[in-house]
Specification:
95 residues, 1 helix, 5 strands, 14% helix, binds zinc ion
């Protein structure tokens, strides 16, 4: 049984509040503590896209436009996708 979008949203909310981490939240899908939260945006802007996923089961969600918390991991959106750091794996979006 796959975790629902709402379950992911709950975990995201907790993880967001723990920025810059560590993320002390179990993955809603597999139960492992392998959740990652990385944003994409311009370095001098406080709004960006959030990518939230589990490194173990490669499930997760994206949040299209959100406030980037202070000290968060942020990819520079001006760079080509494959040059952005930290890397974000291809993960399956929960529905
Ligand atoms: Zn997982």
């Amino acid at each position: 049984m796959m975790a629902t979008y709402d379950q992911w949203l709950d975990a995201y909310s907790d993880a967001y509040d723990m920025t810059p981490g560590p993320i002390d939240v179990a993955c809603p899908n597999c139960g492992q503590q392998c959740l990652r939260l990385v944003f994409t945006g311009l370095p001098d802007r406080d709004v960006g896209r959030a990518h939230f996923w589990c490194d173990n089961c490669l499930q997760g969600i994206g949040i299209s436009r959100t406030l980037v918390p202070e000290h968060a991991l942020v990819q520079d959106s001006r760079l080509p996708r494959d040059e952005r750091e930290p890397k974000i794996p291809n993960f399956q979006i929960a529905s």
